[in-house]
Amino acid sequence: MKALIDLDKCTACGVCQDVCPVGAISVPETHAVVSDDCTLCGMCVDTCEFQAIRLPEVGTGAVTDAAAYRGVWAFAEWRRGSVHRVSYELLSAARRLADKKGVECAAVLLGENLGEAAEDLLRYGADVVYVVDHPALRHFTDEAYSRCLVELVRDKKPEILLAGATSMGRSFIPRVAAMLQTGLTADCTELDINDEGLLLQTRPAFGGNVMATIVCPHGRPQMATVRPRVMRAEIQPRNGRVERVSLPEDVFRTRVQVLEVIAEEDTTAKLTEAEVIVSGGRGLQKAENFRMVEELARLLTGAVGASRSAVEEGWAPVSHQVGQTGQTVSPTLYMAIGISGAIQHIVGMQGSKIIVAVNKDPEAPIFDVATCGVVADLFEFVPAFIERIKRG
Amino acid sequence: MKIVVCIKQVPDAKNVRIDPHTHTLVRQGVESIINPFDLFAVEAALRLKDRHGAHVTALTMGPPQAEEALRDVLSRGVDDAVLLSDRAFAGADTWATATALAAAVRKLGDVSLIFCGKQAVDGDTAQVGPELATLLDIPYATFVKQVELGDEGRLKVVRKTDEGMEVWRLPLPALVTVLRDVGDPRVPSIKHKMRAKKAAVPVWGLADVGLSEDRVGLKGSFTQVVRVFSPPKRADRRMLEGPVSEQVEKLFQFLKEAKVPGL
After folding, report:
1. Which residue has the higher pLDDT, B122 or A133?
2. Mean pLDDT, chain A, whole residue set
3. Of A146, A200, A293, A315, which shows the fewest CB atoms inside 10 Å?
4. What are the φ/ψ torsions at residue A100 (nearest 5 degrees)?
5. Among residues A318, A322, A309, which one has the least CA distance to residue A278?
6. CATH number for the B2-215 domain, one of 3.40.50.620, 3.10.270.10, 3.50.50.60, 3.30.43.10?
């Protein structure tokens, strides 16, 4: 299979030839020709201003009666004593989608000793909160959490299921999708409903260089994960209800044994959770100077990040690395100090709300993604900025 | 013990960028690399082999040129390799990819342990590992930084979470997705390079793994790309001019207005 060219619409302009990342398109005389090298990536489709290119359609998979599925769900993540913030963000997004479709919005809460957490979720727009409170859910395991969620989905049949792209969601949600035999789109940055009522899932593709909008036409529910802080949580209390569900004991069985759970004490290392991250790069020149980055992070009650070069120099541990081989982060504020902005770094932080870059080279690529650029000698700027914060 | 390492050939990020004027994707040659996380998966497998003895097979699904990636890991000490390649596999989403990989693992037979990188850097989904384990009905652990094989034939892993670390024990067969903490990938050795050059790399197509066309590739996928576009440029960028003292004040006020905590 390969991209399909509509010969009536193709003007042989050659634009698609230039954008094809695998060089599969040639334009001899009258129209574009796609070779067997085509990987069906879709890059050419949107660049064609004559709408002459389309991709063949996905299969229908196992027969699911799409019409029997109704409602939008958000998975609420319970983390030892509190609901993770991404759950409220997802619930608000689920509420918007449900309103657009005119259907019910629900949250699913799994865990142990959940207290008033379910009632709290009603404040963010849920019509109903399904709760499974069971000792076997005390520690997260992929198997028990998946089985619970799958049982609920099979019983209630929601058409859309959203979950956080956290370490928990990224681990067990693919299992849920595979068990339900449906599609899953990771790390969506935008969700909407199209004219046919399908969920439009937009996410970065090709290492964050382009955006792709994805649909799941036949599988149900349509599943997507969203990173923390991408959507906005909105309080909108409703007259919702809490439904406590009990499931058969075998649902909680798991082959995995959790031996130990060790909480990270160093809050500066919790990059994916942080609202502010201050990161340092090669421009800092030596290990001692990295302390400026740490001090600034402490003043802003944030986490400490590092570019790959800073980690390789040994100025910061691997666990602090942001970028392609490190962590992908999307804090409210990301400050890049002395980081030039190699693409491998940029793909790991470009989802941040505010990006402040401090670099003495005005041509540094980090400025291309910055909200606020400071062209300055960081050894002058950073200490002065630290003093300014201290003055208040 | 039979170990399988799943690897993926991905475009080198250095070669993919957006033209600032036309906003289209620019490709400067189509260089491919092995997904960096998969090299850590290979290293994790080879370390287990060094300690306990094992037969390590590398598996990839991709176009014919993905053979290069397999020869690379053979030169690092992997015992043999299989290339899953067929036109019918093109356009696969993570589900259809996992379906094809699962069929190949079944064909290999008697596999005790599967290693994958935590995610591929081109798609960043981290889905294929868990989906593959689910299709094979074996337990798995994601985001693993340390792997130990106990005497009783069970696996002890340390996994990294948003909150800290967890220590899990899994029965075999199992699947593990790894972080770079498992150890730096070893470099190819002369001995293994010679072997890699001569090694036969079997190519398995659709019929070889016993799947029908409607279960793989785009036809076997649930998700479909309907639009690909350049991310909107940040329209709100501002450069702070003036002497350092002025820049400091401007940034301070900017962040204060944005209600950054601590200010």
Report:
1. A133
2. 92
3. A200
4. -65, -35
5. A322
6. 3.40.50.620
